[in-house]
Known about the structure:
By secondary structure, the chain is α+β, with helices and mostly antiparallel strands. It has helices spanning 2-10, 49-54, 57-68, 82-85; strands at 14-17, 29-40, 72-80, 97-104, 108-117, 120-132, 135-145, 157-170. A hairpin with a 2-residue loop joins strand 5 and strand 6. The two termini are 26 Å apart.
Amino acid sequence: MNKILLVSVMMCPVAIWAQEIRPFDVKPGLWENTATTQISGIAMPTLTPEQLAQMPPQARARIEAMTNGSPQTQVKKSCVTSEQLNRPMFDNVDKSCSYKLTSSSASSQAIHVECSRGNTKTTGDLALTRIDSEHMKGDMVMKATGDRSTKGSVGESMNIKMTFSGKFLSSDCGDVKPSNLDK
């Protein structure tokens, strides 16, 4: 669930621009991104010890952490192009989300996010800050609401808090491909 929500938020397109975009002043190339996500307010189904025992260790750890509200940390590499830096961050191809850029400068971006998938609605705010040309940080606070009776819905509501940091690794992305830039 945590991974699906993170991917959903990270893949939303820009639908509405609140102001002129000012390029985010960091180096294009290969970046290592660390994101820590904490979800609260979600009622997880109770699994039996037998069901937990049958799960792969990583999946079991994620389920147990989500159940007790523990933060989940993921580290991933991404390729950031100059073209991507000229748009709000996380601008991609998922039609179920929209971003509203609320402020933009060379050193920061603030973005309001709204996503809709089935009967699940997710809204919140994302803030990015440039530390220097090779480091950035940010945070996101979202709330997801839905109808528990609908398959794939999150249920009544849950709160998502994410902090993240990125560090520049190389101007050559190697085998890491940039996100799809097509609209």
